[in-house]
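Give me structure tokens for this 178-residue protein.
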Amino acid sequence: MKIFTYVDNSNFFIEGRRVSAVGTGLASDIYDAIDREVFDNSWEPDYGRLHQFACGEEEEIGRAKLWGSPPPGDSFWDMVERQGFDVETFDKSVSGEEKKVDTAITHQITKETYSLIDKNESEIVLISGDKDYMPVINDLVSDGYSVSVYFWGHAARELKERASNFVSLNDYLDYLSR
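Here you go.
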């Protein structure tokens, strides 16, 4: 079985800080953290553990790719590459917003699904939780692909219900933390 893993880093990182804020008592629950924009800014993910958790053993890895929008000259992305992920970055917009990431991920998944991924011998893992991925998830699951979503428990309901499998990272917060 080959595992093809696609990570929306900003989505994983920002929402992980919210989940950690709940765990440390900074917010009463995830909806309080979202409403009040509360984050545990001390929470740092361990990308080596995320890679191991989501991608499996080395011989099982078909793809392990992470996308994001780093500040210029940030050495973080070199570290993530050393942890085993292929990295693709995009500049933020003039207003500081991340652009192109969701589209780039869905494009890569679609391209590889129909050219590289054997639906009988592979699993697609998406680490993100927003509804922007619904069209590609709908198509892949309808076409018989195994698509797992690994994300924090408050991922979009539609995404959790439509994926072949949903794994809540909330139970693994300590393991995925540095």
